[in-house]
Amino acid sequence: MYAERVLSGMRPTGSLHLGHYHGVLKNWITLQHEYPCLFFVADWHALTTQYDDPHGIVGSSHDMLVDWLAAGVDPARAILFIQSQVPEHAELHLLLSMMTPLSWLERVPTYKDQQEKLENKDLSTYGFLGYPLLQSADILIYRADKVPVGEDQVPHIEFSREIARRFNHLYGREPGFEDKAREAVSKLGAKRARRYDELRKRFQQEGEQVAVERARALLDEVPALTPVERERLHGYLEGTGKTILVEPGALLTEASRMPGLDGQKMSKSYGNTITLREDAASVTQKVRRMPTDPARIRRGDAGDPDKCPVWQLHQVYSDDACRDWVQKGCRSAGIGCLDCKQPVIDGILKEQAPMRERAQPYLDDPALVRAIIDDGNAKARGLARETMRDVRDAMGLHYR
Ligand code: TRP
Ligand code: SF4
Predict the structure, then answer these.
(1) Nearest ligand to residue 323 Cα
(2) Who lines ligand 2 at CB under 6 A?
(3) Which of 54, 63, 118, 266 has its CA 20 to 30 A from that of 296?
(4) How many CB atoms lie within 10 A of CB 100?
């Protein structure tokens, strides 16, 4: 079958904050060591809600890319690209739109949710309704089987699976499939071919699941098969025809518990963020101004860390010894709140130091970012083109 592949995208929101780092980027950085990865800027997706003000998107995309690189996303390991620079996404989106029932789009939960949430904006647009379908095209065009996303995006992955299934069902029967499959069977050698046919019959006539597994194992033993032939024989075996688009799976990213400056989840819309590369003076000032246990009015009042957002940050940044010091010192009024905040400030600055360092060359020379993206766009485009060739073939859309 197709190789394992991870793909994820982010809408360009400009500078990222520590919540993005702990919630998303750290996970990408782990994944890039485990799988071939593609990470992209979903600039067209930004347009679905920002169609009235598109001019900031390019700048936001650049800033976000610098933050990815700063965080440690490694262009030598992962392909980094920009959605709109791989126009094949749009072609696949269009072709999929022809076979996508409106009702499927209307029932995606984010559709109504987001419309209600952003009620001051007219989102009764064609593009916004198609948001999950564009996302499906993003995923399916790379035949990505692993899509790291947060919980809110799981319905979109499920939707992509349904779209892939529908596409394969409609167009998976390539013309001459039977002949091509028989030709591939003959490459197995007489003995294996006989065994394959027997197992195929046992599955298709008796529904024996083990027969499928045995036949697959048998196919694995034949290195001479090309990936396309192997794929074809899988389809022939199960009577499903050809898998043109691979059904993706969600790799659920654990919800980030990264607290913001006020104890709520860190989020731009709450105005409680610290950006990834925020300067030291500003970080210090923001933490020093954080609210604490409201009952601790004077230095002599004892406090309760459970009622204090600073304590939540200690859980991210401090070791056991320090946390113990906070617990005891707070409850006995042995330490002041500014004392208590210092290790948090130190922890954040320490985390940010390598990010600032990694970002510097890109800030000094933005052409470096462009070079990385040019390279990523070209690689992504190569993969996207392969899929589009198969898609057009399956639909009979080739004028040669
Ligand atoms: N919708 C995603 C989000 O808002 C961004 C996105 C677009 C995406 N296309 C994707 C994520 C494909 C994963 C795969 O977070
Ligand atoms: Fe919060 Fe620390 Fe002050 Fe206690 S001592 S109220 S945990 S900042």
Answers:
(1) 2
(2) 292-293, 296, 303, 305, 308, 310-311, 326, 330, 335, 337, 340-341
(3) 266
(4) 20
